[in-house]
Amino acid sequence: MSEDKVYLTNEGFLELEEELNELKNVRRPEVIKALKDARALGDLSENADYDAARAEQAQIEGRILELEKIMENAHIIENDNSGKVGLGATVSIKYIDDDEIEVYRIVGSKEADPSNNKVSNESPLAKAIIGHKQGDICPVESPNGKYDVEIVEVK
Q1: pTM above 0.85?
Q2: Is 90-154 CATH 1.20.58.1370?
């Protein structure tokens, strides 16, 4: 079975690796200890501590599997410095209607964080500007309507 590539910047990959290590080396041992402690209390059928520890264990193990799968299929984004917008590029854009300038980094969907101006390559804005260069005006089709942006700078 072939898996789709997951696009990540090097920084995003390292963040996932750090989270995976935290789960495996800190949280997993903590929950195992909590399970042992809860078992020591006796009757497991009405043991809320045991049930809570089992639920946390399931959540941790699920996240570990998810992270391992993402990292296994990761394709590290390298900015090609061609002057064109692509994955990994940092782009300054001007919204034509109000002259507001914003700076965004184009990243893969697993790394997207709009509150930190990291937009997914699958977002309407990224789809509109990928492949374009400084000075281009691009129409963006979004769920909130159509608008135009000018690419001010590509890094």
Answers
A1: no
A2: no
